[in-house]
TrEMBL record:
SUPFAM superfamilies: Class I glutamine amidotransferase-like, vWA-like. Coiled coil: none annotated. This is VWFA domain-containing protein. Gene3D superfamilies: 3.40.50.880, von Willebrand factor, type A domain (3.40.50.410). It comes from the Bacteria. The chain crosses the membrane at residues 15-33, 45-63, 716-735. Keywords: Membrane, Transmembrane, Transmembrane helix.
């Protein structure tokens, strides 16, 4: 049931209509009775009229009033042709049909769309002046490279804009590959077309299958590396070829120096791998990682990626703590003291001779956080909690250093079994393995046993002893074996096992002997043998020095990303993509070098487009001067970061954050005709193939005239109506009180 009162349209049900009329009659009767009984008839008449008007307004709202306006267009009916001009339309996978061009073959989606738009078949729609054609494109990428990298395709907004600007629309035709990555779901726009009564016809462009292609998806290089050392550069390549491909990955810098690696790419899936690169000089360099074009590959532009890698000298501060000067301790001390990038301190608790003395030795454990916080890596040998060794308070300091200041700790147990006493201290949770309590002194094998690398160990930079990844397994097989190993049952959860005992198995499987884990902001390494010094046989210091040098640098890497006198800043992830949230961690110190107890840490970030953003880091609930905060990365490119402990930026430390440009809109992706089919179904149109274009022209010409556009404002649910009703009731209530007072 419905009726009109000028532009007002009511839609009551029989029940609400009857209830409304009864209520109005009842309220009217009550108003008359109240007026007759009142000693102030004039004022009461006004108030009762207002009461009746409020009741009338409520009843009318119950009947769902709408303000209806009808727009009768004065122009000719229009037929809109919307065509996709986004970057994905450059994909070369569209088969040109005879109906559009006599030249057969595969062309780009953009060329196919142009041929379809230029077809003379559309002229039939304008014959006799009955219709007008509207030609509109959407999705053109911006000219600015930074903006183009984060631009995408929005299928919903162009249709909504069309409906808003066109008042006499008969039909719309959409030519697209169906790929969208921004805006609302396209079905939202299709539903609005359904409400307007405008059918949508879609023409899919492109192939549903991915083109034969090798795509260098990602290169996740570290932010910096140490001059003279190798860095590991992980990468991901996706193959959409239908066969296995044996190819070469080539890494080249801007000076022409290059490194290659042979890889095998399985068909139809991504491959994750890494390549080593040795940094020869200080400063930033631009590198390019690429794979050659394979036979049958259709897209060449995505076979390479460029990135920036900085080389810097490093001074790593290391503290080695042990009891007996066993062979492992002696050769470790020699290796670190001769490393030009390491500043070594040793603390030796000899049970008979007392504390060690001489070059590089200290006499006491650093008792204050500011004394201990200077160390990047701590080696804990055959040391435990004892009167002449460590205390539980010192173990607390070591754990705080690792978790809050991103230092590293290396556990190197020995045959005395002193490290068992660490299990009941703050360091117990940091030990990444479970010890066997029945054999505290470890196990001895009469025959030397080798270490066997795990899958994680074969890809880890820590265990990369050869000059190339291909030769590394042979190097490990040639290393002299060990006779003693720590009593380990198994590794703990959340750890990474790099090497196991090659000849022994426990009840939990192979015995883990080189194990790593993260602890707060820092890192932990467990070394379960004391015979790494034997790796010197026949090659002198080559592998022994390389291993321990890599350990020291791996553990101190994050801590030294940006280190100043008063502030140390590090962040994860190192190479974010637009949309990622970066976590900043900082350590702040006062003028005496002690962890900052009061104050703030500010990180000023300058985006690639010059805009600035300040992040105030929050202090963690520790005594280590640790701060943290987060920031969302909005643009790809180079972000300049400056961390300071005051708002003016004094004594700041500066570094760069490189955000990888991952383009939302990519070529080579398969078309999505299912999206277009769903849009057409909802909007009461249909999806057609190019061969059906003549039939589409005929179908559009037989469509009825566009109906007038109706604009409806639902007064019964509008906020202004409720506000007026509340105001009238307030006036009535106030007037009633005043009337009763006189």
């Amino acid at each position: 049931m419905s009726f009109h009162l000028y532009n007002l349209h009511f839609s009551p049900t029989p029940a609400t209509l009857a209830i409304g009329l009864i209520v109005l009659v009842a309220v009217g009767v009550l108003c008359v009775l109240s007026w007759k009984r009142s000693p102030h008839p004039r004022r009461t008449a006004a108030l009762e009229s207002l009461r009746f008007f409020c009741a009338l307004l409520v009843v009318l709202l119950l009947w769902k009033p709408e303000w209806l306006t009808v727009l009768h267009p004065e122009t000719k009916p229009r037929i809109a042709i919307l065509w996709d001009a986004s970057r994905s339309m450059q994909t070369l996978d569209a088969e040109m049909p005879d109906i559009l061009s006599p030249q057969r073959g595969v062309v780009s989606r953009a060329e196919w769309t142009k041929a379809a738009r230029d077809s003379p078949l559309w002229d039939a729609l304008e014959e006799g002046g009955k219709n007008e054609l509207v030609d509109r494109s959407f999705g053109e990428p911006p000219t600015d490279p930074a903006a183009a990298a984060i631009s995408g395709t929005d299928l919903s907004t162009p249709i909504e804009d069309l409906l808003e600007n066109e008042t006499n629309l008969r039909a719309a035709v959409l030519l697209s590959d169906g790929d969208y990555n921004t805006g609302q779901p396209p079905v939202v726009a299709a539903q609005k077309m359904l409400q307007r009564g405008v059918p949508l016809f879609t023409i899919p462009v492109g192939s549903k299958k991915r083109l034969p292609d090798l795509d260098m998806l990602a290169v996740t290089a570290p932010a910096y590396g140490i001059v003279g050392e190798n860095v590991q550069i992980p990468f991901t390549i996706r193959s959409s070829l239908d066969r296995e491909v044996r190819t070469i990955v080539r890494l080249r810098d801007d000076a022409g120096r290059e490194k290659t690696k042979e890889i095998v790419l399985p068909p139809g899936e991504p491959t994750y791998d890494a390549i080593l690169w040795r940094i020869e000089k200080e400063g930033s360099a631009t590198l390019e990682l690429s794979v050659p074009v394979a036979d049958g590959e259709r897209i060449e532009a995505n076979n390479s990626k460029k990135f920036t890698l900085a080389g810097r000298p490093e001074s790593i501060k290391v503290l080695v703590i042990d009891t007996l000067p066993r062979w492992e301790y002696r050769y470790l001390r020699n290796a670190l003291s001769r490393d030009p990038g390491v500043e070594l301190s040793c603390l030796l608790f000899h049970p008979q001779l007392g504390k060690g003395a001489g070059p590089d030795y200290i006499q006491d454990f650093p008792s204050k956080p500011e004394e201990l916080s200077k160390y990047d890596v701590i080696f804990i040998g055959d040391v435990g909690v004892a009167p002449d060794q460590l205390t539980k308070e010192q173990c607390e300091l070591l754990r705080g250093l690792v978790e809050n200041q991103a230092s590293g700790i290396v556990f190197m147990p020995g045959p005395q079994g002193n490290q068992f006493s660490l299990l009941d201290t703050a360091l117990g949770d940091l030990i990444p393995v479970v010890y066997d309590e029945t054999t505290k002194g470890g196990l001895n094998d009469p025959v030397a046993s080798p270490l066997a690398l795990t899958g994680e160990g074969r890809s880890s930079l820590l265990t990369m002893l050869a000059d190339s990844e291909e030769a590394n397994p042979d190097v490990w097989r040639s290393l002299p074996g060990f006779h003693w190993h720590a009593p380990v049952l198994k590794s703990k959860g959340g750890t990474e096992v790099l090497a196991v005992h090659a000849n022994r198995r426990g009840r939990f499987g192979p015995i883990p002997l080189i194990v790593t884990k993260s602890a707060g902001n820092g890192k932990v390494l467990f070394m379960g043998i004391d015979s790494a010094w034997r790796w010197r046989r026949g090659v002198e210091d080559k592998y022994h020095y390389r291993f321990w040098g890599q350990v020291a640098r791996w553990m101190s890497y994050q801590r030294n990303m940006a280190a100043g006198q008063r502030v140390r800043l590090y962040f994860t992830p190192e190479r974010p993509i637009p949309g990622d949230t970066v976590t900043f961690n900082a350590n702040a110190f006062d003028k005496n070098g002690a962890p900052l107890q009061e104050g703030n840490v500010y990180v000023d970030a300058i985006a690639p487009d010059g805009t600035k953003e300040r992040v105030v880091l929050e202090k963690n609930d520790t005594a280590w001067g640790a701060y943290s905060g987060r920031m969302r990365i909005s643009l790809p490119g180079e972000w300049n970061l400056k961390a300071s402990i005051d708002e003016a930026g004094a004594e700041a430390v500066e570094t760069k954050l490189l955000a990888q440009g991952v383009e939302l809109e990519q070529t080579g992706q398969p078309a999505r005709p299912d999206v277009l089919q769903e849009m057409a179904r909802i909007a009461r149109g249909r999806m057609i193939s190019p061969e059906q274009l003549p039939d589409l022209i005929k179908e559009i010409t037989t469509l009825p005239e566009p109906r007038p556009i109706e604009n409806r404002i639902s007064l019964w649910s509008h906020w202004a109506t409720v506000a007026v009703l509340v105001l009238l009731l307030a006036i009535f209530w106030t007037g009633r009180k005043l009337n009763g007072a006189f």
